[in-house]
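Deliverable D5.2: sample structural annotation.
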Amino acid sequence: MKVFTLVIALLGLAPLHSSASPPGYGTLKNLPAMSFNRAGHTATTLPDGTVLLVGGFMEEEQQIAGVELFDPHALRFQTIDNLATPRQSHTATLLSDGRVLIVGGHSAHAPYLDSGEIFDPATRQFTSAGRMTASRGDHTALVLDDGRVALIGGIGTDRTILDSIEVFDPKSRAFSVAGKMTVPRMGHVSVLMRDGRILIAGGNIGRRATLKIHGTAEIFDPRSGRSTPAADMFQARHKHDGVLLADGRVLVIGGSTEHAVRSDSTEIYDPTRNTFTPAATMNLARYKHRNASLLLSNGDVLIAGGADQAELYDPRSGQFRLLQGSSQLHGYFSATASLRKGRVLLTGGYARPAAPSRGAWIFEP
């Protein structure tokens, strides 16, 4: 890691050091606890501003069917009807009509799920979304420009790492094969870029002794159904995060570079040049934090997972700053959701050796 940081400094690409946030950069505040201990869950902001929290696990192999809503005005959580199938490491995607598509994941009864459910905020009920073309968990999901949802990679039947990409069409309520990646990936990130193409970066194939972490990236074009290699990343990584910046570049954050070794490194992908460039070092090493980072309205990025403190990235200065306020986050497999007026909800996660948490926090800009 010191070598990585030194290279950054010598190239003049980013500041060598980061710092704590001065007043005015935002703070974290504790909220009343959730109804369930959760990690590996999802948090989805609904059109009315409430947040839907779905699934996850309370301890290993004990998945949750419980669902709750967070009311940002009352600052409280309310339980509602359960999922039909308990699940963790699934995806939950807001559709253009305000409903939420929940698909895949793991369950103790069916380790790799091919089922989907749709939550309707008007009725607060779940209905079947049918079956995917493949069982998958630890995949990524993105809403495409035409309203369909792309489901990318993950792990499936017999612990097979998947290279397949499929789409869900809300109009026909059907799943169909859309294409495949250049290599199988799980633990990767997928980011929808301004031109409608998807950057897919990093991830892994294999497990334990056969684990191989990807340093490669690729671009999937939903219009053609083709995936083509992009430039290699500066560092191989999985279980990381990625965020589209306001200027159209992509910030790639943290992750693990080998077995459970957390990384504090970051890099930036420029789609106009097809290049990855090393960026500043974070204050804290982070992994198991995919979908826990958010672009804020002022152009900063809140990095809220993978460690016990959150920090902000300022793309103008290229610096990371630790947030003031609560520092007892439970960062692994936590979930975040945007609220109105620039606020952000942070929920759950776990920190070894602790079990998943009921903890919740709010970021105030």
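Annotation notes: The radius of gyration is 19 Å. The chain has one helix and 36 strands.
The annotation will be released with the project's public dataset once the embargo ends.
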